[in-house]
From TrEMBL:
Name by which UniProt lists this protein: Na(+)/H(+) antiporter NhaA
Catalytic activity from the UniProt record: Na(+)(in) + 2 H(+)(out) = Na(+)(out) + 2 H(+)(in)
Transmembrane segments annotated in the record for this chain: 37-54, 82-100, 121-140, 146-166, 178-198, 204-220, 285-310, 316-342, 354-376, 382-404
Primary location: membrane
Organism from which the protein derives: Actinomadura physcomitrii
Length: 414
């Protein structure tokens, strides 16, 4: 009996399967991770996984994973365990993407026009100052507490946008832009705080080498050189030099991101910033930030552990700063800016929606945990601070959800 013939089309499909579908699905996953909402959900799942593991009989294995040393002597990097690699290495990618966003906002976005940028910028600045003041007031007199004054000053953009998307699906574009711009400015202030206040020992030779490499990167960007294989080793070496200098290496990430070219090309091809964002945003949202969250958020949630948090004025200062300070600072800063004539509210924004965003600004996860780890080297205190950040983020999310569900007015379709 003759065998059925195989057409060229069938042979082609047989040849590429299963690789072609894998590439297609991989592209779909990457596209999903380029949205802040999906990134926030992935980070939330990683956080839940860490909390579950840390509260099982296998909690010691989780602690061992966190503290597992990965410090080859030839690198010259002292005490780099898995958790430090996540905060210093993986978060550098996150801050590189944040630098890209900030450069885009300054060139083409809300920060291009000082008049339009005034409202979220002033709100962000007030949303940093007020939580710090409340933290200092609540934790006053506690030994070593002041080192953590910056913990409640940060807003987690991915987490906040995920909550916004779930609770306010009809969110108007100007409100989302306000939150995005506020969070980008917040990240810039946070990275400046890390560089200025959480650098203990400065090695000038390594810092100088890092500055030269970052400047070289910027010069090549200005010349519109496009090869990523030229930029990658420069960026890695810049990260290494800044890490060796004593400054937290995430500073290198945001500096490189802000220097990446955003000028449009005459031939219509993507800019260097667009290409970098296209590749690195899924990596940041799908791997770097979730891994950092997984390695940082695993804290005990027993009754005694929660009691220790509520009895620690540092932890209470973090909760108060994020929940109360962020709300008062962001809303009060925006209201003062409008009343003083420094900014305009805009026709498509409502104060009740600004109030919801102000509550949502209290979701301070990624950067708050990073600063907490830099401020408090004592593991027990850092664990209480981590728990406080989680509690504050849950309270802020719930409060914002109530505002958006009950008070946000549905908008007519454009």
């Amino acid at each position: 009996m003759p065998r059925p013939s195989t057409t060229p089309e069938k042979r082609r499909i047989a040849h590429v399967w299963p690789f072609r579908p894998t590439v297609r699905y991989g592209g779909q996953v990457a596209a999903a991770l380029r949205t802040e909402t999906v990134g926030g959900i992935v980070m939330l799942l990683a956080t839940v996984a860490a909390l579950v593991w840390a509260n099982t009989p296998w909690a010691d294995a989780y602690k061992s994973l966190q503290s597992h040393e990965l410090s080859p002597h030839w690198l010259g990097l002292e005490h780099m365990d898995v958790q430090h690699w996540a905060s210093g290495g993986l978060l550098a990618v996150f801050f590189f993407v944040a630098g890209l966003e900030l450069r885009e906002e300054l060139t083409h976005g809300e920060l291009r026009d000082p008049r339009d940028a005034a409202l979220p910028v002033i709100a962000a600045a007030a949303g940093v100052v007020m939580p710090a003041l409340i933290f200092v007031a609540v934790s006053a007199g506690e030994p070593g507490a002041l080192r953590g004054w910056a913990v409640p000053t940060a807003t987690d953009i991915a987490f906040a946008l995920a909550v916004l998307a779930v609770t306010f699906s009809s969110c108007p574009a100007p409100l989302r832009a306000f939150l995005l711009t506020l969070a980008v400015v917040d990240d810039l202030i946070a990275i400046t705080i890390i560089a200025l206040f959480y650098t203990e020992t400065l090695h000038w030779a390594w810092l100088g080498a890092g500055v030269v490499l970052i400047a070289t990167y910027g010069l090549l960007q200005r010349r519109r050189i496009r090869s990523p294989w030229l930029y990658l080793p420069i960026a890695v070496l810049a990260w290494y030099c800044v890490q060796r200098s004593g400054i937290h290496a995430t500073v290198a990430g945001v500096a490189l991101g802000m220097l990446t070219g955003v000028r449009e090309r005459p031939d219509g091809r993507p800019t260097n910033a667009e290409r970098a964002d296209h590749v690195l945003r899924p990596l940041s949202a799908g791997f770097c930030v979730p891994v950092f969250a997984f390695l940082s958020a695993g804290v005990a949630l027993s009754g005694s552990a929660l009691g220790a948090v509520l009895g620690d004025r540092v932890a209470l200062g973090v909760i108060s700063g994020l929940v109360i300070g962020k709300f008062v600072g962001v809303l009060g800063g925006a209201w003062t800016a409008v009343r003083a004539g420094l900014a305009t509210l805009g026709e498509d924004l409502r104060w009740r929606e600004i109030a919801g965003v102000a509550m949502l600004a209290g979701v301070g996860f990624t950067v708050s945990l990073l600063i907490g780890g830099l401020a408090y080297t004592d593991p027990s205190r850092f664990e209480r601070v981590t728990t406080a950040v989680l509690i504050a983020s849950i309270i802020a999310s719930a409060a914002a959800a109530v505002v958006f569900r009950r008070r946000a007015r549905p908008r007519p379709a454009e």
